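Deliverable D4.2, example record:
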Amino acid sequence: MNALRRIHLGRVRLVLPVVATLLAILACGPAPSTPTPPFQLGTMAVSTTEPPTAPPPPTASEGEDECSHDYFPSDVGTTWEFVGTNSMLGGYQNTVAITVSADDGFIVSHELLDGSGTFLLAYSCSDEGLTLLDPFGQSSAAVAATSEGSATVTTLAQSGLTVPADLEGASTWQQYVEWEAQGGDGTALRGETTFNYVSRGVEVVTVPFGTFEAIRIDIEVRTTMKGQEVMACQNTTWVAADVGTIKGEQSCGGIDDSMELLSFDSP
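Output generated by the structure prediction step:
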């Protein structure tokens, strides 16, 4: 994909260690005497046995296509293939594709790094830019691989942008997510995650697919519970015009990951 695609791919990896940590805490903590009351704006169920519910498709709208973005192609059939190395999984190759597209949003299918399946992510589009909906839905890739059990991660509230409309003119931006993680025994944890984005300007980057002038974006992700930080992750991604993500590097929870664009196809 594009900037979003790269950021979005980076955030998939960033969220995985966060959810694994939550599962470990849930496994060790006592169940509350009174369940946390529901307050749900969007929910993504995550478990070791059931696949996550697919997000609803965007609805077609009249007028200008707000999803058009120089650094995030969103036409149906657009496909990216990446090759990478993960300190936990080793070498991998995975595919990302746009499966649904409309004027006000689109859906991206991601192949899990271990090749065991796929999961879907939905984006909304506005004049301000692109926003990944229910960000912790992408945590499904981690839960299936952990031995700590299963959890349901619910987005309670969110604000901000994932990719601003004018990416070339942007310097810093942010997305904030309030969430709840509930274990199978009813134990619940609430927390907040903030994605801090900083554009570092244009760099010349060479990957298997070619050499590009790409915008470098550094992402710091901080997760807190009860005011205390429980996880901090760093991610750098490079995005090229009309292509999207071409390279990414990440360090989170003791797991390092790097990937480069192997092929790209757009209808």
